[in-house]
Each structure stands twice: as C-alpha cells, then as structure tokens.
UniProtKB/TrEMBL annotation:
Class of this enzyme: transferase
Membrane-crossing segments per the record: 12-33, 45-75, 137-157
Keyword line: ATP-binding, Coiled coil, Kinase, Membrane, Nucleotide-binding, Phosphoprotein, Transferase, Transmembrane, Transmembrane helix, Two-component regulatory system
Catalytic activity: ATP + protein L-histidine = ADP + protein N-phospho-L-histidine
One Pfam family cited in the UniProt record for this chain: HATPase_c
Domain of life: Bacteria
Protein name: histidine kinase
Gene3D superfamilies, A to Z: 1.20.5.1930, Histidine kinase-like ATPase, C-terminal domain
Protein species of origin: Microtetraspora malaysiensis
Length: 389
C-alpha cells in the first residue's frame, strides 16, 4: 500500500485530477443519461468500469503516449462492439486529450503519423463498423486534428522556452566571464601603473641614499638600511605585479613557511605520516616569497595525501646562502593524475609561483617508488641570514 501511494504521488497532480474527472463524469452519465446513447435503461453499472479504465489510461498518457493512444482506439472499438451507437462525453473528452498528448509529447513526424492513422481509422468506420456520413467524417477530422495541433503548439512553446532558458544561462555565464576578465584586466593595469610610478620613486630614493652614503665615507648604517629597505620595496613591487593577477582571496593576509607545521597538523587521520625537517638557519622572507613557498608546500602535500595512499611524506625546507630549497617526497604509489597535482592549477600553478621569483620546480616519480617535488626559490639580495623567520 505504501509503494502504491508513493507511486501515485509521483504522478503529476494535473493528470490525477483529469483522470478523476473522467471517472466521475463517466459514472454520472452511466447513472443518468445512459438511455440517450442507446442503452435500454438507466443506470448502466458496467459503464462505470469502462470509465475507470479510460480514466487510468488518461492518467498515464504522458509516460506512455503511443501505448495509451492505441489502447484508447481499442477501447472505442470494444465500446461499439457492445452495441452502443453514440460516444459519451467522457469518452470524446478522453480521446481529445490523448490526441493532444500525441502532439505535445512526440516529435512532429512520428506524432503526425500516429494522428493521421487514428483519424483514418475513425473516418473509415473501422471503429463503428458502419459507413460514416460526410458531416460526421468532417467533424471527427476537425476535432481530432485540432486537438493534435494544440498539443503541437504546446510542444513548440515548451521547446522555445527551454531554448530561451538555455540561452539565458549561456549569456549569464558569458557575462560573468567577461566581468571576471574585466576585473583581471583592471587589476593588471593598476599593478603596472603602481609598479611604474612607485618603483621609479623608490629607485630614486635608493640611488640618492647610496650617493649620500658614499659621500660620507660608506659606513653610515642608517643610509645602508635605507638602501636595503628600498631594494626590498622594489622587489616587492615587482612581485605585486604578479600577485594582483592572482585570485582575489590571495590578496588577504596569508601564511608563510612558519605555518607549515600547522598545515601538517590539519591533516588529522588522513592516513599519511608527514615528517618535517628544516635545514639551515631560518630567515625572514619577503611576504610574497614566503606565501608562494608555503603554497608550493601545501599543493605538493595535498597531492601526496590524495594520491599516495598510506605512505610517509617528508618535507624538507632548506635555507641556503642565496636560495630556499623545498623538497616534498613520499614513498607511496602516485595515481594517474599525480603529474597534474590536485588543487588550484596543480604543477602549472606551482611552477608559475616559482618562476615569479626567478625560481624553478622539478616534479616526478622516484626510481624506488613514490613521488617528489623539488623547488628552488632564490633569496633577494640583502636578506639577513641571521634573522629568524
């Protein structure tokens, strides 16, 4: 009973109401006006069973339009074989609904073929077993043909509405794409303008501070600090030109290599055992370089967690005299997508981050099994090696 109720609830309520209306109208005609259609007396209880069958057929006309169409023709044939001359209102209404459904649900060519076949069957008298007068032939042709045409018009309207909705969706996607491109272009323009204007001014300051320092003997610590800060500012401005091309969320405050330990802690029960090793004396990196180094480690580690399975991952951060070296290696079996890596732009995104600072990325499987990512990021000139990160 529950499955039957669930089945009826899945049917369109409009169809349920139409089927119930056909059954109700058939029952009323069976009880009141059966003699008007050639029956010997009122009521005709067996009409009720035929009305129920017809109502159920109408109920399923959307799901099985051709099958219901054929069964309705056979029901009409059986109706007239019982000696009934006329067609009650509920039967005529059901036939019109079924002809309409053929037009609404089937493509034009097969739908028209079925409708023409049905009209010819009625007009030829095959259903009534009698030759039909011309006026009745015209009547059946017009009403059944009109019912089909209304369904065909509804199908055309629905098709146009669907195409318009799809076109609107495509236009919305195109609008969003163009808006994103416009934002990216504007950010690039702003970055270039800021870089050209500010970098020129800072470079002049650095040059003047250098001239003044050398004029005072070359040992002035304050002027040396101004020169060093100026060179770092010019380097950061160059990095900003690339940073403004990145997604907007990367413009927010971001972590650096000092947060790799926290990144490892967030893996939890991923099944991968991660070991971190730091070689050399950690130094304070420029913010842009520090962020990109962190993102490279994050990307490679995410790839290892996703594809290496139950494996050991070793992260090595090496601070050398003029370069920061990053090595992320695992002893698992890389998946089919290991070369593409997982999040963001994968290996392409990591390579772009490294090249932005004049560095390089090497990635590939290890001979003994597993996968590794090696990154070398040059340190800007003048980074104090004794200052901790």
């Amino acid at each position: 009973m529950t499955s039957l109720t669930r089945h009826f609830r899945s049917l369109p309520w409009v169809d349920v109401l139409i089927g119930a209306a056909v059954i109700t109208l058939g029952t009323l005609e069976a009880m009141t006006v059966a003699t008007s259609y050639g029956s010997a007396q009122n009521p005709q209880f067996w009409w009720v069973a035929q009305a129920v069958v017809t109502g159920v057929l109408v109920l399923y006309r959307r799901r099985f339009p051709v099958a219901v169409f054929i069964l309705m023709l056979l029901a009409q044939y059986a109706w007239h074989r019982q000696g009934n001359e006329g067609c009650p209102v509920w039967q005529l209404a059901s036939l019109l609904i079924v002809f309409h459904t053929i037009g609404a649900k089937l493509p034009p060519k097969p739908g028209a073929s079925w409708v023409i076949a049905g009209i010819l069957i009625f007009d030829s008298g095959a259903v009534d077993h009698r030759p039909l007068p011309l006026n009745e032939v015209i009547f059946l042709t017009v009403v059944f043909g009109s019912a089909y045409l209304t369904g065909l018009a509804l199908r055309g309207y629905q098709t146009r509405a669907q195409r318009m909705a799809e076109r609107a969706a495509r236009l919305e996607l195109e609008r969003e794409r163009r808006a994103a491109e416009a934002v990216a272009a504007e950010r690039t323009r702003i970055a270039r303008e800021l870089h050209d204007v500010v970098a020129h001014s800072v470079s002049m300051m650095v040059m003047q501070a250098g001239v003044l320092r050398r004029g005072l003997g070359g040992d002035n610590e304050i002027l040396s600090g101004i020169e060093q800060a100026g060179r770092e500012a010019v380097e950061e401005l160059r990095i900003m030109l690339g940073a403004l091309r990145m997604p907007q969320d990367e413009a927010l405050p971001q972590p650096g290599l000092d947060m790799v330990g926290n990144l490892i802690a967030t893996l939890g029960s991923s099944g991968v055992r991660v070991h971190l090793a730091v070689e050399g004396e950690p130094v304070r990196l420029p913010p842009g370089l520090d962020l990109s180094a962190y993102r490279i480690v994050q990307e490679a580690l995410t790839n290892a967690v996703k594809y290496a399975g139950d494996a050991d991952v070793r992260i090595t951060i090496g601070y050398r005299d003029d370069v920061v070296e990053l090595r992320i290696a695992d002893n698992g079996t890389p998946g089919p997508s290991a070369a593409g890596l997982s999040t963001g732009n994968g290996l392409i995104g990591m390579r772009e981050r490294a090249e932005l600072f004049g560095g390089s990325i090497e990635a590939g499987p290890l001979p003994e099994g597993g996968f590794q990512v090696n990154a070398r990021l040059p340190l800007p000139q003048g980074v104090p090696m004794s200052e901790h990160a």
